[in-house]
Structure formats: structure tokens, C-alpha cells
Amino acid sequence: MVNALRIGTRGSDLALQQARAVASALERCGAAPCELRVIRTSGDRIETGVLSEFGGKGLFVKEIEEALSGNEIDIAVHSAKDLPVVVPSGLIVQGYLPREDARDGFVLPRGVTIRTPATILEILEQFGPEPRIGTSSVRRIAQLVTRCPGAVFKPIRGNLDTRLRKVDGREYDVIVLAVAGLRRLGFAHRLSAAFTVDECVPAPGQGAIAMETRVDDTAANESVARVDDPNTRTAVTAERALVKTLGGGCQMPIGAYAVVKGSELHLDAVVSSLDGTHVQRFRLSGVRDEPEMLGHVVAQRLLEAGAADILGNLRRSQVSETDES
Hints:
It is a single chain. This protein folds into three domains: 1-97 and 209-228, Periplasmic binding protein-like II (D-Maltodextrin-Binding Protein, domain 2, 3-Layer(aba) Sandwich); 104-194, Periplasmic binding protein-like II (D-Maltodextrin-Binding Protein, domain 2); 230-325, Porphobilinogen deaminase, C-terminal domain (Double Stranded RNA Binding Domain, 2-Layer Sandwich). Helices cover 34% and strands 22% of the residues. The chain has nine helices and 13 strands. It has helices at 13-28, 62-69, 120-124, 138-144, 160-168, 179-184, 218-227, 230-246, 291-324; strands spanning 5-9, 34-38, 75-79, 91-96, 104-107, 132-134, 152-154, 174-178, 193-194, 209-214, 254-261, 264-272, 279-287. The strands form three sheets. Strands 2-1-3-10-4 form a five-stranded mixed sheet, sandwiched between helices. A hairpin with a 2-residue loop joins strand 11 (254-261) and strand 12 (264-272). Helix 8 (230-246) packs across helix 9 (291-324). The longest helix has 34 residues, at 291-324.
């Protein structure tokens, strides 16, 4: 009898949808039957506040990786943007499903319409001089703060239903979300508009589903290899290499988006101060076969241009806030 592949996942609606997508892909390609194992993470226990205050999005990964290392599951499924760039010894990010739309988008309250085309500033003008934008992402805030002068950025947590209920209840005038999450959960119709990558560079790995395994688990690794999407792997590898070289993490205002075009790989990356007054952005193309090198080179260019100072100041301020708390 063939043992089922045990897939570890968080219990949120989006996480379960992503785990089901992995299970479906594996079973379609002839792998062993799959069963889902729901694992509650530290991040799931934090219901209010900004994640960076508690250690960042790695909080959504730790317990799942511990279960993987302990042979309680065979494959860990993550949103790639939540996965720290350094994985524990003995584990490997073995593959990615084809990437969804990586862009950020925004949702307006029900009944509020917009004329198109319109800039985000023109859309926000109907809410007065201090529109309330719901997002807990420092990356989104850092990139949007100069585009939306006067806007008040308010933290927002909870599952997608909760966030939509809050904007419909006018607790916020606009909420900013990943387009991929809206689509995967069947709420694409609620997307008012999506930001272009020029307007807001996505989080590294955004829109991609990562599959993590044990290095020595031949059966799981062979199964994941069957469903691994080469273009997504190449793009996300470049983005993660950039973050690793920058020494950043999920809680840093770093945007990175790579795309494969034929034999080339194009990478667009940005590092911003939280108030948007200091911004370093760099774009570069390289060969698709060397994604880690491209990510490293772009990161080095950013650091040399001033990103080192931006990130250094952010780290010092975070240490200061920790010392005072």
C-alpha cells in the first residue's frame, strides 16, 4: 500500500486553498494520495498589531518547519512571501506551483465606484483629505505614502472575509491586498484595481506557492519535482537571493519582482524608508540560468546606492523600540 503524502499547512482559508492546490497538482501527476495536516503557528495566535512587532512573517512558518523536520509531515506548503530566506538545516524549498498575479491591489467599500482610468490619488480624493488605508505591510506603506499624501495608514489583520467586512463597514476607505489571495479565494470581483509594478513593487515571492521538503526524503522530492514550475522557481530564487544579500526579511520595506522572458531574467527591486523620503530602486536583466547571481548583483547595487543606510536606520530604530518596550 502506498503511503499518503502528508501536507502541512496553516489553517486559514487561503493556506488551505493553497495546500489543496498542491495536493491536486501532485495527485494529477500520479504522485501518492495526499492528506492535509493543519498546524497552528505563532502568527495565527496574533490577532492584532503589526507582525514586525512580533518577529515578522516567519511566525507563520516556524511550527510547520518543525513538523517537517520531525517527520510529522512530508511536504510543507507556504506562501513564498512568508518563507524566510534561510531555511533550517536538513530542509529545502523543493518547488513552486505556477505563480499567480504577483501585484498588489486595492478594494473599496461596497457601493463605491470609480471611473477608469484613474490614479490611486484621484480615487482617494473622494474620501476627503485624510483617507484611511488599511494595510499592515511596511513595504506597501513605504511605497504608497508619497503617492497618497495625507493618507492615514491603519493596520488591518484577520482573514479575507474579516478584512472585506471591515472595509464594507467603513472602518477603512480602502484596503490593500495581494491580488493572488483575492483570486484564489474567489473574490476577484471585489478587486477595485491593481497597482502596476511601477507603482508598487510586490513582496519577494508574492503570488507563489512554495513546497518545502526534507533534503533526504527522496519520495517527496521526486513528487514535488513533477509539479515544480521552472519559471516561477527561477523568478522567486532571484527575489529571495536579493533579500538574503540585503540582509532583509519579511518585515523590511523591500520590494522585488522578477520575470522570465525567453532566455533572460528581469529583476526590479526597491528599498524605501518607512516615510518614503529615501528610495533606492534598481532594475537589471541577466541570463535565466543564474537567478541567484542576478539577485545578488541587484542587491549589491542597491546597497552601494544607499539602501545600506536605509536598512541600517530601520534596524537601529527597531532595536531602539525593542529596548524601550
